[in-house]
Amino acid sequence: xxxxxxxxxxxxxxxxxxxxxxxxxxxxxxxxxxxxxxxxxxxxxxxxxxxxxxxxxxxxxxxxxxxxxxxxxxxxxxxxxxxxxxxxxxxxxxxxxxxxxxxxxxxxxxxxxxxxxxxxxxxxxxxxxxxxxxxxxxxxxxxxxxxxxxxxxxxxxxxxxxxxxxxxxxxxxxxxxxxxxxxxxxxxxxxxxxxxxxxxxxxxxxxxxxxxxxxxxxxxxxxxxxxxxxxxxxxxxxxxx
Length: 241
Ligand SMILES: [Zn+2]
Known about the structure:
The protein has 241 residues and is mostly helical.
């Protein structure tokens, strides 16, 4: 998963959403209103803006492996119709993630979402990556001595630890990143900016945050890079933030 930064909607699309939110306020079911709205130019602009947030490959914001094909309501619009037309509640998602999630939306005892919101927080605070299997798992939380509950709920809901195609995509991306770092390590002099650029281009799955985070930093070849060329390691770590 990758932290996604939300862009502002063009004014016309935003005021269309505001109008729809007002018109449907208090309605227990907005499915029809949503279906009608979905055909409009304003919603096409919403999709374009979400695509711009995901980068040139327009990947799903949850798995970051498949193509993001539709608007996803983070708080599902079935049980939470009042959030259907709120821009901060919209993400771009693939059909598979959309199917796994459906109307499921676990909440903590305090009423907070247990699903990671990639547009509102850094997913790697809750998730971990296994380079051998390519699976995403819940990050071990040292403070509580247990896996992150939010990470666990997210992995379970989206089945991030048992999707073969997705895992293969992550493994391939990791190998590309590893190969660039290994190639840099074989050079007499490492150009920090060039390496950072290569890695950013190779990172189709948001993995660099993990590679240059607390877990990846202790693994070969990232630990070797930090050892041999601390400035290059620091430049890459800064570039992925
Ligand atoms: Zn997906």
